[in-house]
Amino acid sequence: MNNYNIRLIKPADAEAALAVYAPYVLHTANTFEYEIPSVADFSAKIEKITVQYPWLVCESDGEIVGYAYGSTHRERAAYQWSPESTVYIDAKHHRKGVARALYNTLFELLRQQGYINVFASVLVTNENSVAFHKAYGFEEIGLFKNIGYKLGKWHTNLWLQYALQEAVINPPVPKPITKMLDDDELKITINKPVELLNT
């Protein structure tokens, strides 16, 4: 049985996380990047995102086998309560509950920060990811038709939305994750899904 662990990403994890991402760049249109980023560029991306948002990794017996993070969906101030989610899992660890466990932790942290909604963009031909997001509770909200060209063809993305909590009037500005690292609630949240994976 694999021993899984979920935690916040560290700068030293960049190369291992990039190794999870690289096959998606080379062999799929699940990401619209054409070339694998350098470790330096990927490290810079991690550093930029984790000022505000959680970026989680899932380890199996100490090896990073997946990750998930929140990021800015739109730049204007009125959008600040609605981030976008991203998740990538090593192919050998598909269908083991890793993505769900990462989302469980990520979304609880986003709730604690004060976010209201989360959006996901999924290739319409990626049936497994579409099914996963719908089963998790995401709702379809629209298509971006022929939005990206990769691997010799045009691709359409499905956009989905998940409500993290009630949309209230005058919501507080979401807290940066860097301001919450010592919170006991955050530490408890990160440890919860590990039991689901290890059973």
Report the CATH topology name: Aminopeptidase
Output the number of helix runs.
5
- N-end to C-end Cα span: 9 Å
Q: How is the largest sheet built, in terms of strand order?
A: 1-2-3-4
Q: Strand fraction band?
A: 25-35%
**What is the gyration radius calculated from CA atoms?**
16 Å
> How many beta-strand elements?
7
Let me know the average pLDDT. Answer: 95
In total, how many domains does the architecture comprise? 1
Principal-axis shape equals: globular
Largest sheet entry? 4 strands, antiparallel
Any idea what the CATH architecture is? 3-Layer(aba) Sandwich
According to CATH, the homologous superfamily is Gcn5-related N-acetyltransferase (GNAT)
**Residue runs with pLDDT of under 50 for 5 or more positions:** none
Helix coverage percent of residues?
25-40%
3D structure, described in words:
With 199 residues, this protein is α+β, with helices and mostly antiparallel strands. The chain has a single domain, classed as Aminopeptidase, CATH 3.40.630.30. Helix content is 33%, strand content 28%. It is built from five helices and seven strands. It has a four-stranded antiparallel β-sheet, with helices on both faces. Strands 5-7-6 form a three-stranded antiparallel β-sheet, with helices on one face. Strand 2 (55-60) and strand 3 (63-71) form a beta hairpin. Helix 3 (98-113) packs antiparallel against helix 5 (184-198). The chain is globular and about 45 Å long. The model has no long low-confidence stretch (mean pLDDT 95).
